[in-house]
Design brief:
The complex is a heterodimer of chains A (569) and B (419).
Chain A lengths: L1 H5 L3 H5 L6 H31 L12 H8 L1 H34 L5 H8 L8 H11 L17 H25 L3 H9 L4 H30 L2 H6 L6 H11 L3 H28 L17 H28 L2 E3 L3 E4 L6 H4 L3 H32 L4 H16 L2 H12 L13 H11 L1 H13 L4 H8 L4 H12 L1 H17 L15 H10 L3 H33 L1 H4 L1
Antiparallel strand pairs in A: 1-2
Helix pairs in contact in A: 3-16, 3-17, 3-18, 5-8, 5-10, 7-8, 7-14, 7-25, 8-10, 10-13, 12-13, 13-18, 14-25, 16-17, 16-19, 16-20, 16-23, 16-24, 17-20, 20-23, 23-25, 24-25
Chain B lengths: L1 H5 L1 E4 L2 H8 L3 H17 L2 E6 L8 E7 L2 H16 L3 H15 L3 E6 L3 H14 L4 E6 L2 H10 L8 E6 H9 L3 E2 L24 E13 H6 L20 E4 L5 H14 L1 H14 E5 L4 H7 L5 E5 H9 L4 E4 L7 E9 L5 H11 L2 H8 L4 E2 L15 H4 L5 H19 L8
The chains are: A mainly alpha (569), B alpha/beta (419).
């Protein structure tokens, strides 16, 4: 796949090139980008790997830590627990998301726009939020406590429910894309051959979205096995790998065992990643140029059924968000239901409580600004660059790595790498900069792929022409490519902003007292039992992300009219 | 390079460097003045000019105590030398810098957040030249942080952390001995007497207690527990919460106190029984009490202060201290070895053993280091001071890892789905 991505346009290869400043600048930038990914992804991981082979005093002890790990059932059982939870959630969420996506793409149900927007809501909340809401819903003082018939929400049930909320939109997005590319001619042919609806579904629809389904399965599996927020809040004593890392490092100060759990958590994430890559490689384009987009016809019964189903799912999502909002306003659950704002008085609960919120804003803004520019520029060099083929291929491969690295593993590995006293980059440790850098690295892959996809849509002749006119590449970049791809750059910026607001995993190991983030504050407040203020802070994050999203779509609509007129003709 | 570890060397840029190397007088004069100011302010300890372990051609080297500020000041000053408006600009730069820099003292603490502002204000009133920067988190996290930063400590003084945690650090040689002025007024049991210069000094005791939600207990027909053994009765099954000793200081002091009271075997037997009744082991020590307060689980093994505080806030919570004995640990302070703010750290240490400080400790905790200070705290369980066991901190610190490992092996799989 990579070679196909990177082959420069044919006219370019023939052009006689001289080594001008142009090429030097490009080379320097490519090295810089590669250096970034090496320093902030690969080398920390290497530091963690080597840490897992040493004891507390830094002596090499081979696999002893690993033997120790597998000899302690309390620890190694977490592998089993993590996999069970991940499989369960995958089995529940993927079909649910499939049906939801089917309703949105293949039926004529009403209010599609609203239902799509509602289903995306979980993307705006930290994964701690659904867990906190579940405590209020099904906890021992919960509203619907009896629904569980004596079972406790603290444990696998809670984790699975919370995870379903958290990963649903991720699965939905993939399946929406898969389901919306379909060829109506296939359905016509099947109908002409007298296929029944079931047969049609099994032999046309399903094969068409096969790879989308596979992708959704792996994405859900990886997200669940690596998420930390949900099991932290509602996992009770049901240990999973992600909470084990936290316990080992923060609770027991056993960094070496933390490194071992980190390495183990890396295995399923990597496996899922490679399986997904393989599936994608086999995917052949569904749509030839002659394909006719499928247009669903009105079928009242079916449409109504899907409307009911989608309402049911959105109601669940709304309820989770709503209960957190309500609980954050209540004076003293469950004894005094007066509505008050005191839970939002964060300064009374923690020293500098509000500062963590403003820190988060600053952090998210910095991540969005630097991340989107850096990632997009790098993607440009990879996709539209000339020469240095091995470097560009290598860079593209490197850019895929962060997807396979869970946030907690990344964060932990940063401790080992950047806090080593002999590391010249040591000064970064416990600064805002390291939070931003780790988060850019953590969410690199998706942003990179988004940028690559957008860049591919631009005709390579633009580069060819500008080169033949002896315009340096950076001029082309600023005058043509960047304005044309502005929506993509903004998309990446928003993606980074929202994720920076909500993420806990990588930053939980890296924050310093004066760079504490809102999501960490949620975690800490829940940890000491201040559940209502935790819900309040989670709502602050949710509302901020929502406001930024709304503002963004409102503003871009206007701006795009001007800069993207060429798209609409 | 060896040099960068403790020194910051300055290679005079361009003209400055050249002038310095040529022995240009005014530059050295300027630098000398710079020396004086930074030394007086404790920002840096200047070393020799242009020799020693610094690379050739360096103008001077400093040991910077406040790295960031020092660097920015040096930069500023060099710039001003460069633009020839040397002396005036420099002294101006210093006064600017000084206003910001009145001895920032980095204090790591596990004291409840709402109390910190009061302590800071009281101390700084007496010591206006010191500015406390709190770094606050729960016991386990602060301990982990300090151990992680062992090679490269960021804290000047640790204040209000469990003595057991401080002992772990002491065993690793991380603490600096100091006898605060007025130490002799404290109870001898409350500080490190092994060293002539105590490595740690206790401030106040936090004491294990059982928080019971009376409203929920009534609704569920649970009798009030009065001893530890009561908690193993089948009637409490699924109604008790306790902190996980692996992460919580409070959890560990419970376990360690049971072992010290009854011997290890009996303590494990008791915990086996207790384990049958435990609904959840929490990460933090105050959470069980807060859960009891909100009725999530009616009984929480926690510490007395939290229970009293919740009751004062109106939660239906009663705090019980089993008369047979309760575990406790000392919130203590210790100066970090290698701190560059030793003088300021000692000032805080001195203040922390005063009567005024002890009276402030007493506002929330019933047992403080200075005898005769403590008054009764509202809603504190009666007679709790008498129930405190004879705690052997060094035993607890030495056996901590072993006990925690065994505990994890026995109980950390709780609430796995059975069958």
């Amino acid at each position: 796949m990579t070679s196909a991505v990177l082959r420069p346009a044919a006219p370019l290869r023939k052009a006689v090139q001289k080594t001008g400043p142009d090429v030097w600048i490009m080379r320097a930038m490519l090295y810089f980008a590669a250096g970034f990914l090496l320093l902030f992804v690969l080398m920390p991981l290497w530091a963690m790997l080597s840490k897992s082979f040493t004891d507390g005093d830094g002596l090499y002890i081979g696999l002893a830590n690993y033997f120790d790990y597998f000899a302690t059932p309390a620890l190694s059982n977490s592998i089993y627990n993590s996999i069970t939870i991940s499989l369960l959630v995958t089995v529940i969420v993927v079909p649910m998301a499939f049906l939801y996506a089917y309703g949105l793409t293949r039926t004529c149900m009403r209010f599609k726009g609203i239902y799509k927007a509602l289903a995306m809501a979980p993307l705006l909340a930290p994964s701690l939020l659904p867990a906190i809401s579940l405590v209020y819903l099904f906890g021992n003082q919960g509203i619907f406590k009896d629904v569980l018939m004596g079972e406790s929400i603290y444990g696998p049930i809670g984790i699975v429910l919370g995870m379903c909320f958290y990963v649903f939109p991720h699965a939905l997005l993939i399946l929406l894309t898969a389901l919306s590319t379909s060829d109506a001619r296939l359905y016509e042919a099947a109908q002409a051959l007298g296929a029944k609806p079931t047969k049609m579904f099994l032999s046309v629809t399903l094969p068409g979205v096969r790879y989308g389904l596979i992708s959704a399965v792996f994405v859900v599996f990886t997200l669940v096995i690596t998420d930390f927020g949900v099991p932290k809040v509602i996992g009770g004593q049901y240990n999973v790998l992600a909470t084990d890392i936290y316990k080992q490092v923060v609770g027991q100060q056993n960094f070496n065992m933390g490194a071992v759990v980190g390495m183990i958590l890396l295995v399923p994430a990597c496996l899922a990643f490679f399986a997904d890559q393989m599936a994608q490689r086999r995917q052949v384009s569904q749509l030839s140029s002659r394909a006719v987009p499928y247009q669903p016809k009105i079928e009242r019964g079916r449409d109504r059924l899907f409307l009911i189903y989608c309402s049911f799912v959105s109601l669940f999502i709304l309820m989770i968000v709503g209960i957190a909002a309500w609980a954050s306003l209540i004076k003293f659950w469950p004894y005094d239901f007066t509505l008050v704002l005191k839970n939002y008085d964060f300064n009374a609960i923690e020293p500098n409580g509000w500062q963590s919120y403003t820190n988060s804003l600053e952090f998210a803004a910095l991540t969005a600004l630097f991340g989107s520019l850096f990632i997009f520029t790098t993607a440009y060099l990879v996709e539209k660059g000339r020469k240095h083929n091995w470097l560009r291929n290598g860079l593209h491969a490197l850019a895929m790595v962060p997807l396979a690295v869970p946030g907690m593993v990344l964060g932990l590995s940063y401790i080992f790498f950047f806090n080593a006293p002999d590391n010249p980059l040591n000064f970064l440790y416990s600064t805002m900069a390291i939070l931003v850098l780790s988060t850019v690295a953590h969410f690199y892959t998706v942003s990179h792929l988004t940028a690559i996809t957008a860049l591919k849509q631009i005709d390579p002749e633009i580069e060819a022409v500008s080169q033949s006119l002896k315009v340096p590449f950076y001029k082309t970049f600023f005058k043509v490519t960047l304005p044309v791809c502005l929506p993509t750059v903004l998309d990446i910026a928003i993606y980074l902003f929202v994720n920076a607001m909500t993420t806990v995993s990588a930053v939980v190991f890296l924050y310093a007292p004066d760079t504490k983030l809102a999501s960490i504050a949620v975690l800490n407040m829940d940890d000491v039992g201040d559940t209502a203020p935790a819900a309040a802070m989670a709502m602050m994050i949710f509302m901020t992300a929502l406001a930024v999203r709304l503002l963004y779509s409102f503003m871009t609509r206007k701006m795009l009219r001007r800069t993207q007129a060429w798209r609409f003709k | 390079m060896e040099c960068h570890k403790e020194f910051t060397c300055f290679r005079g840029v361009g003209a400055v460097g050249q002038k310095a190397r040529n022995g240009f007088k005014r530059v050295t004069e300027v630098l000398a003045e710079f020396h004086e100011t930074v030394t007086k302010e404790g920002l840096a300890i200047p070393r020799t000019f242009g020799e020693g372990r610094c690379p050739k051609g360096s103008v001077m080297k400093f040991i910077l105590t406040d790295h960031k500020l020092g660097i920015s000041m040096l930069r500023k000053s060099f710039k001003s030398v460069f633009t020839a408006a040397a002396v005036t600009a420099l002294s101006f730069g210093f006064t600017m810098g000084m206003a910001e820099a009145k001895d920032k003292l980095t204090v790591y603490t596990a004291v409840e957040p709402e109390e910190l502002a009061g302590f800071k204000a009281a101390f700084e009133k007496e010591n206006p030249d010191v500015n406390i920067q709190w770094v606050r988190d729960s016991t386990g996290i602060i301990t982990a942080k300090l151990l992680a930063e062992k090679e490269n400590p960021k804290a000047d003084i640790i204040w209000g952390l469990a003595a057991t945690s401080l002992l772990v650090m002491d065993n690793q040689g991380m603490l600096q001995g100091y006898a605060p002025k007025g130490l002799d007024k404290l109870d001898k049991k409350m500080y490190d007497t092994k060293n002539a210069q105590p490595h740690w000094v206790g401030q106040r005791a936090w004491i294990a207690s059982i928080c019971v939600n009376t409203r929920e207990a009534e609704a569920k027909n649970l009798p009030m527990p009065s001893t530890w053994e009561d908690l193993t009765k089948p009637v409490y099954k699924g109604h008790v919460v306790m902190p996980n000793p692996n992460s919580s200081g409070t959890g560990f002091l419970d376990v360690s106190s049971w072992m010290q009271m009854w011997g290890e075997e009996k303590a494990w037997n008791f915990m086996d029984g207790l384990h049958q009744n435990i609904a959840v082991y929490t990460h933090s020590g105050s959470k069980p009490c807060k859960m009891a307060g909100s009725g999530e689980y009616p009984i929480g093994i926690s510490f007395a202060y939290k229970g009293a505080q919740l009751k004062n806030k109106g939660a239906p919570v009663e705090t019980v201290a089993p008369t047979a004995g309760v575990g406790w640990d000392l919130e203590s302070f210790a100066i970090v070895k290698g701190t560059k703010n030793l003088a300021a750290a000692q000032k805080l240490a001195d203040w922390s053993v005063t009567r005024q400080a002890n009276e402030m400790y007493n506002e929330a905790y019933a047992v403080v280091a200075m005898p005769g200070v403590a008054k009764e705290v509202e809603n504190f369980p009666a007679g709790i001071a008498d129930a405190m066991i004879d705690n052997d901190f060094s035993w607890a610190a030495d056996n901590r890892m072993r006990i925690l490992k065994e505990w994890q092996k026995r109980y950390d799989e709780k609430s796995q789905p059975k069958g």
